[in-house]
Amino acid sequence: MRIDVVTLFPDFIRDSAGLGVVGRAQERALLTVHGWNPRDHATGNYRRVDDRPFGGGPGMVMLAEPLEACLAAVRAADPAPAPVLLMSPQGRRLTQAKVRDLAALPRLILLCGRYEGLDERFVARHVDEELSIGDYVLSGGELAAAVVIDAVGRLQDGALNHAESARQDSFEDGLLDCPHYTRSGACGTEGVPPVLLSGDHAAIARWRRKQSLGRTWQRRPDLLARMALTKADRALLAAWIAGDRD
């Protein structure tokens, strides 16, 4: 998969995408991430990428011309089709389901705004979709783009050392993840639910499902409201709510 990012700070994108799972995905040639600076495509002695807004008011607005020239260079770099996604608090909220859809594409183009945003005429002509990572405002779209790159990159086949890890993540089946425990020289098995030490894989799976259902009911009931639970799930959740947490 190829991800191109239009940003005034391509070094940030390069450095953040070089770490952890996403960095490993690039090393394994599963993913490539490219930063493009619209300032490189600006004209004039000052290579301006912004100007004052029509109608007055505070702040500056990113100019359409350098953005359009930069986007043309991005498209020319690879013939693969790619949706143009603008990182924006006004966009559709990013979800794990959306991440899975994006991860299946051959290529993405992410736009990172700065200042008061992008000239709306550029947005209308070139942006296919706006994406938000939450109801708050950042100084620019780079952090949001880094979130998208990480979420999408880790779903590339072979990016994770254990493919099952992605399938067990929170939100993959609409629920929050269950609690996890590991071996500790200091604590031993103190506080670890006995079922996890039993070796009974069916009982462990049942316990984990009950914990996921219970945690979601307790912490994110809005997720449960959108799900159609099976009869077995309803029984597990009812037991958890009644106090049977084992």
TrEMBL record:
Gene Ontology cellular-component terms for this entry are: cytosol
What's this protein's function?
Specifically methylates guanosine-37 in various tRNAs.
Please give the name of this protein.
Answer: tRNA (guanine-N(1)-)-methyltransferase
Q: Where in the cell is it found?
A: Cytoplasm
Q: Which family does it belong to?
A: Belongs to the RNA methyltransferase TrmD family.
What do we know about how this protein assembles, alone or with others?
Homodimer.
Alphabetic keyword roster: Cytoplasm, Methyltransferase, S-adenosyl-L-methionine, Transferase, tRNA processing
HAMAP family recorded: TrmD (MF_00605)
The record, for Pfam families, names: tRNA_m1G_MT (PF01746)
Where on this chain does S-adenosyl-L-methionine bind?
113, 133-138
Q: Which residues form a coiled coil?
A: none
| InterPro entries the UniProt entry points to | Alpha/beta_knot_MTases, tRNA_m1G_MeTrfase_C_sf, tRNA_m1G_MeTrfase_TrmD, tRNA_m1G_MTases_N, tRNA_MeTrfase_TRMD/TRM10
For this protein, the Enzyme Commission number is: 2.1.1.228
Q: Where is the tRNA methyltransferase TRMD/TRM10-type domain?
A: 1-225
